[in-house]
Amino acid sequence: MSSSDTRAEIEQQPDVWRATRRVVDAARAGVDRLLGAALPEHERTRIVLTGAGTSAYAGEVLAPELARVLKRPVEAIATTDIVTDPQAVTAGDRPVLLVSFARSGNSPESVAAAELIDQLAPAAHHLVITCDGSGRLARTFQGAANAAVVTLPAATNDRGFAMTSSFTSMVLAAWLCLAGEADVDALAAAAGTVLAHAGEIERTVTALRPDRIVYLGSGSLKGLAREAALKTLELTAGTTVALGESSLGFRHGPKAALTPGTLAVVFVSGDDYRRAYDLDLARELTAELGPGRVVLVDAGGTWPVPREPGLPDALWALPAVITAQLTALTCSLAAGLTPDNPFPGGEVNRVVQGVVIHPYGERRS
C-alpha cells in the first residue's frame, strides 16, 4: 500500500501523545486558573464538551468518564447543535464551562457556538483545545480573562483529510486538563502494539471486502464507534457504508443495516458491567454473520489492544481507535481512492464550507 500523510499521521500517534503531555504540563497554570474560576464547589456549572464531526465525537468519548471522575454532569453537545439551538444549552440560568475541540478552529460553527454561550449564559468560561494556534477559535480566546487556550503540537494538525492524530491528541489533552494524570507512556506502548499488527488488520479487511461496517460499543465506546464509522465514510468517500451505535441500541432498528457482507467491529469495554452487554451482542452477531465477520477489539480480542487494569474506556479508546483508522485507510486504498484527498471534486471539505451563521436576536439584559 502506498504511503500518505494519513498513514504517517496514524503512525505518529504514540510520539504526538507524549508531546501533547508536555504541552498540557506547560499550560497547567493557566488551565488550573480557569477551572478554579469555572468550577467552584458551591456552583453547579454546566460542563459542555463541543466540536463538530470528529471533534464532537471527542466529547462523546470523554463525557461519561469525566462525569465519574469530576462527580458532576458532563455533556457532549456538538457546535452544530449549539448554533442552531443555543437556548438548549443555556436553559436554567446556569454558568457554563464550554470545552471546545477544534483541529483548525476555522469551521464557522466553532467561534459562533462559543460566542452564543458568551451571549446567553449568565457566566461563561472557555477551555479551547486546538491543533492550530493561528485558527480563528484560538485567536478569538487567546488572552481572554474567561478562557484558556491549549494549542497542541504542530504535528497534531493533520494535513490529511480525515482527523486521526488530532482526534486522539485532543481527547488526551482534555483528559489531562480536566481529570488529571494518565499513563501516557503505557497508552503509547499500547498504540505501538496495534501498529505492529497493522498488517494483520489490513489483510483481514482486504480479504473480507466488506460492503458496510458497523462499529459498536457502550458508554464512552459508543462515541468511539461513531468516530470509527465516520473515518470509513470519509476515507472511502461514502463508498463503504459505516454505522456507529451502542451495543444495546443497535438492536432497536439500526440492526436493519446488516448484510451478509457486513463487517461488525465491537469495542469491548473494560468495565465488567458494560462488557457483558458488548459480549452478548458479539455472540448474537457471530451467530448471524459467522465468526469471520465479527471482530472484537479488546485486550485479548481478534484485534488486540492492551489495557492496564482499571484504565478508563475513554483513555483505552486512544489506541483502540487506531484499529478503525487502519480499517478506513485499507478500505480507501482498496476502492482506488487517495486517502489524503478522497473528495478531489470538493464535495466534502477538510474545513467545512457553505455555512451561513445567522444573527441570534435574543440577548441577555
UniProtKB/TrEMBL annotation:
One of its GO terms (molecular function) is isomerase activity. It comes from the Bacteria. Residues 31-187, 201-342 form the SIS domain. GO terms for cellular component: plasma membrane. Its EC number is 5.-.-.-. InterPro entries: GatZ_KbaZ_carbometab, GlmS/AgaS_SIS, SIS_dom, SIS_dom_sf. Pfam families: SIS. The keyword Transmembrane helix does not apply. The keyword Chaperone does not apply. GO terms for biological process: carbohydrate derivative metabolic process; phosphoenolpyruvate-dependent sugar phosphotransferase system. Keywords: Isomerase, Repeat. This is Tagatose-6-phosphate ketose/aldose isomerase. It comes from Paractinoplanes abujensis.
